[in-house]
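pls ignore typos typing on phone
iron/sulfur cluster + seq
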Amino acid sequence: MTPVSLIPIPLRIAALTQERNRLLEYPIERLSGIIKEIGFRCTSCAKCCTQVFNGHVFLLDRDVTVVKAIDPAALEPAPAPEFCDQNGIFYVSGYALRTQDDNDGSCWFLENGRCRIYNSRLTICRIYPYMLHREPDENGDVDWRQFSGLDQHGEYGTLLPEDESLDLARETKEYENAFLTQEIKFLEFMQDYFPGHNLRHVQKIYDNQMRRFTRGDEIIVRVYYNGLLEECRIRK
Ligand code: SF4
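k done
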């Protein structure tokens, strides 16, 4: 499969725009109906706040602003940067939440099984485990996915009031729209930034730098945030 960083940027923007159009056409009542049917209730097991359960927590720009005000040390560049230039510097579309150095890879803000910033928790944390995007299943069939980790956490079949499931559906759709929009804006930015600074993506250097990172060397990652790039130095 072609690494995503090798697909021309205009094609990627077109694909994401098409994805966003599909998302916007998805009837809110349908998602609300699915949410109501599942009847999920959080039991505060905190599984979803660990890396064992979720690879990483990607942050929208507005969430980054919240985290910066609470504890900037909780931020790290999202994994799998999209580009690496000829000088070995990576570029990624946003930040993720740092994890603690424990066996489960607990979220930076998880303390004794509770979220330390629950009242200001971030957009993805508010809507999780609901989602609304298309991805391949285990057979490779691409379809809409509306729920993450069915039967692996929480309780099911509880009665959700109509207005609650409708609110959850709206918030979920709004998050997915904001996520795709952030990705599109990042790619549009990079489309100008690379030629404007005599830079280009070099896959061989990307792979070499990733190997260095895996071995424990420091790398530089420029993170897209609020229309600009912020430079971070990170080590595994
Ligand atoms: S910010 Fe809070 S709710 Fe979100 S993953 Fe971390 S501990 Fe869990």
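The longest helix spans residues 162-196. The beta strands are 75-77, 83-84, 90-92, 95-97, 110-111, 114-115, 130-136, 142-147, 219-225, 228-234. more later
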